[in-house]
Amino acid sequence: MPFEELKPSLDAAYKKINQQVTVKGFRQGKIPARVIDQRFGRGAVLEEAVNDALPKFYTEAVNEGELNVLGQPEVDITELKDGELLAFTAEVDIRPAVEIPDYSGIEVEVDAVEVSDEDIDKSVEQLRERFATTSPVERAAQDGDVLTLNLEAKVDGEVLEDGVAQGVTYTVGSGELLDGIDEAVTGVEAGGSATFTSELKGGSAEGKEAEVTVEVTEIKSRELPALDDDFAQLASEFDTLEELRADSRKRLEQMKKYDQATQAQEKVLDELLKLVEVPMPEKLLEDEIQTRKHNLVNHQLGQMGLDLAKYLEIQGKSEEEFDAETKEQAEKGIKTQFLLDELVNKEKLNVSQEELTEHLMRRAQSSGMSPDQFAQAVVEGGQVPMLVGEVARGKALAVVVEAATVKDSNGEVIDLDDEDETAETVEATEAAETEGDEKPEA
User: Fold this and answer.
1) Composition bias, kind Acidic residues: at what positions (predicted)?
2) Which end of the chain has fewer CB atoms within 10 angstroms, the N or the C?
3) For residue range 318-334, what is the model confidence (pLDDT) as tens digits?
């Protein structure tokens, strides 16, 4: 760069330093440039000017070269001659060229949509459980009873500070508290107690064997409503149990169709990726791996009170297996984005305001934020282009799915032409692949 192009940044540097320093005999902001050079060094001014100018010069070079860059560059100032020139190199990954393959021959098989009587029975039973009632009984505790308990845990004979709990509600047989508690409380009457040994699942002594004393203070039997028309009227808008079961069948079929669509999206995407070679920028891949690890450890696991070591223990994986899986997922995510972005360009797909709004509403719902809060965070974080890209890639994959042959396990060809359902399914797939925090960064 000719040195004169650095002049606006030099002027800005002198002005900035003027506001930050004081020199006896001069008013703040009125210190001459030669005095600043004498007192603080011309080098400090040049450094400030170069740091200010480099982003603009780099952007001009990228635009001039018509480069589609990825991530941040590594900049190296190769020569700086005061009053003469500034020379620098910037190394950055660029988006690789991707050739869209012929995807018209893709064929995948998905599960058939089949709802059995047993499925309906289970659905109705779950609804029945929600309307169960309890009443105190004077007998020993048995499976299904709702108990009120006092608990005390000891490790090496010492009561833990966080090992005492009063008035805990527990349903016998649910398996929600400690291993061994069901056997311990079964047969115990109100006012009685039992002691058992169990491995603690949380707290200060997590993972240690503890001697747990449980006192039963109250026993309530749990009664389910009869499966009849009265129950249908109580639990739904229907008048008869037959109508309730018919509605359950309809909802289960819709859920299975949605699952079928999701399965089709995932399988078609996998087949599409097999048809094309996508060069993998190493720096971008490493950044994506680190981002996925950070999101898992600091967001998902942090909210559950787990660290990576405990998570791997629960999953039964070694750190090497985890790293390999993370790398594989990151590579797939990057390849998917490159390929679908190229499809967006090839098919000239656009995103309407309505499509973007619908996508934003769904993302807000999955993040637990209100649409207004989510939209504000997206705008403040400059992430609107990210959301537009998600919708566009969803539409691109829908084009491929439409061209593919999708059959169910019975050999029947499935028609997946519901674009709204397709878009929702793709978004769910992308969210799973991203494994990031759903909430946008403001």
Assistant:
1) 414-424
2) C
3) 999 999 999 999 999 99
